[in-house]
Amino acid sequence: MFTQNTVFDASIKLRYKSTSANCKVEIINDEAIITLEDDVFGVANGQVAVMYEGDKVIGSGFIIKTN
Hints:
Layout: E1 6-13, E2 21-28, E3 31-36, E4 48-53, E5 56-62
Antiparallel strand pairs: 1-2, 1-4, 2-3, 4-5
């Protein structure tokens, strides 16, 4: 389980067959704020984001806001 105000590097997948993208994850008030290192096409509200550390799933959630 993550603690409040945790920041770490991870990779993320937004679609089952997509390649993973490197990102920085910041946990604030039970929400993960994800900052992608590179642009990813087609990120949309309602999609599931799955975070990985290597091959290990470390978290997931629905995207509620994009910039």
